[in-house]
Amino acid sequence: MNTVPGLSPYSGPPVAVVGNGPVGQTAALLLARWGIPTIVLDARPARDTVGSKAICQQRDVLDVWESVGAGRQIAEEGVTWSRARTYYREQELTCIELVDAGSSPFPPFVNISQSRTEQILDERIAATPLVSTLWSHEVVVFEQFADGIALTCRTPRGEKTFSAAYAVVCSGGRAEGLRRSLGVTFDGRSFDDRFLICDIRASLAGWASERRFYFDPEWNPGRQVLIHPCPDSTYRIDWQVPPDYDLDAEVASGALDERVRAILGDVRYEIEWKSVYRFHTRCVDRLRVGRVLLAGDAAHLYAPFGARGLNSGVADAENAAWKVAFAGRGWAAPEELLESYHHERHAAARENVEVTTATMDFLVPQSAAAAAHRRDVLARARTDAAARELVDSGRLSEPFWYTDSPLTTPNPTRPFAGRPPRGAAPPPGPGVIVPDLPVAGGGSLRGLCRDGLLVLAAPGASVHVPVRTPAPVRVAAMTSLSARLPGVLGARAGELWLIRPDAHVAAVVADEARLRDALCRVVGLVERREDEDGLLPAVG
Ligand SMILES: Cc1cc2nc3c(=O)[nH]c(=O)nc-3n(C[C@H](O)[C@H](O)[C@H](O)COP(=O)(O)OP(=O)(O)OC[C@H]3O[C@@H](n4cnc5c(N)ncnc54)[C@H](O)[C@@H]3O)c2cc1C
Q1: CA–CA separation, 240 and 226 (whole Å)
Q2: Residues 465-478: tens digit of each pLDDT
């Protein structure tokens, strides 16, 4: 079992995780890393592994899964790709190569079916005694108290109630009843446009390492097609289809075979899974209600172009897990730290809604003016580089930047320049996730971050800074970890970088006093509080 080294025993009540989908699985495993026992409750009788759903997992998500022992296996079993090509009719418009600002052990994206990811996470859960899984337990009621929460479940043997310190609700998009019982709204739009997905096994030379997006190809005129390589010579083909599309009728008439052959040509193929979906763009108004945090599809739904669904759900799980662990262990001001979960992940959800809405407005115009704009941009993009920039086939998932978070200490000399160009990461600085790279003695920078708070001293800064906190904290000279690190971070002489357990930069400061303020801030202490030895007090 992967745990943070040197943890004291935890004696409080367990944390309830509602929903054993991939976000709930990740939350439970991450809480176990902090030594917190969890009960995972799911309404279904067992895991069903039908269909591939989320296939496209981003590097930083693989990295989170690696912290619970699953990332490498998921990456190795998946198909690696680092190039995204976009075509208009027969002409290639753009080819984006995804870059790594550091040297992560993981590729920018791997494609693997969500079913397989869930199986691998289940294997890790089976090897993690701190996680107890209960199927056929549908949570129907939450009751919140000053010191905990009670969850009532409907089970085949009648109602059961569980006590927990906190609950992380990862019950998926359909969990309207739970959202209602928590008093949160789920506003947004559901669209009538239909998309057909087929996972097709075939041998196709040259298709295996890139994502291809076709606007108006001759085999789907006026609409688009997205093709992703997957393991075992399988390809995910996603067609935009008319609103009245009837899959059964197309299968029966042989038109589905014609549709597939129009792309693949005369090769042998097998359809492994097929499904027609509509998309939704919705987000709760609150991601935290007292001791309950909402994560994943329970909190937000995005159109799938950009692969922001599960990838952002995993980021929710990570953000929730370290904050619940810090609050539960008395390492932080619980009210402020848990409230920062809402602040940070709601901002991330708004960014995802904005990005995916812009994509869908381009892909599936909802007005005559938007349709004319799409036609005009695509036509001009054949010859005009500026128009090519306006072609939106989905901005791929990326970690959010917590630049406006109450936990982040701003640094006026490092202003945030806003959303970076597609495929690029913002330069490291307050709120931004640090790039990964190998460090001396084995392991990686991200691995060190995940074991608590980390202070990195740039050349010229002292490593003898008194930073004793109840939470695990480590101070290291950047160059003792890697000669490349100051350059990769863009660190200036004498700076102290405070990094959070999710590898986001909490502060870049120039002296010890500011570092201590930043340490208080990152654990939710609004005003600096410390005893005469400079030790931040246990709180909560
Ligand atoms: C066609 C398609 C393609 C996609 N492609 C991508 C992609 O490439 N990349 C990406 O990142 N995302 C993608 N997504 C989105 C992704 O599948 C979801 O974001 C992901 O499944 C969300 O996981 P989750 O754990 O939040 O919820 P779910 O997987 O829905 O799991 C929720 C769980 O909660 C349980 N539950 C519900 N109510 C209760 C209750 N009251 N009590 C107890 N348990 C309950 C359910 O039984 C279920 O097991 C895609 C989705 C679709 C449909």
Answers
A1: 9
A2: 877 788 999 999 99
